[in-house]
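Researcher: For the annotation table, I need structure tokens for Upstream activation factor subunit UAF30-like. Please keep the output clean. Sequence:
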Amino acid sequence: MASTAGVFGNRCRALMAAAKTSVTSTTAGSAAAKTSGRRNGILKTQPVSPALRQFVGAPETSRTDAVKKVWVYVKSKKLQNPNNKKEIYCDEKLKTIFEGKEKVGFTEIAKLLSKHFQKAA
């Protein structure tokens, strides 16, 4: 098998551009600026419904924090279905935020919690 220098000669080097090191430092700097600034989207703290307020223990929370607290509660009470880890058995406390359902799927959690967050005006 021939090397690329043998096939293309020295002309191959002219086709490759030099890597720019300043681009990576600028990109990393702008990413740090975004995360340290204002929180948007699912990271934004918002007022929540009375049911979720009682579950979370705070009048405002972000969507990600609400999901995390649900998972901490599920793990501590061992409410996850051992045969199907994508399924959660709801006790009375979870039924108040999950519309009284007996079981909730992993993918349903965010959808059911979104009803408890007030829409921005």
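Researcher: And a one-line annotation?
Model: Residues 29-33 have pLDDT under 50 and may be disordered.
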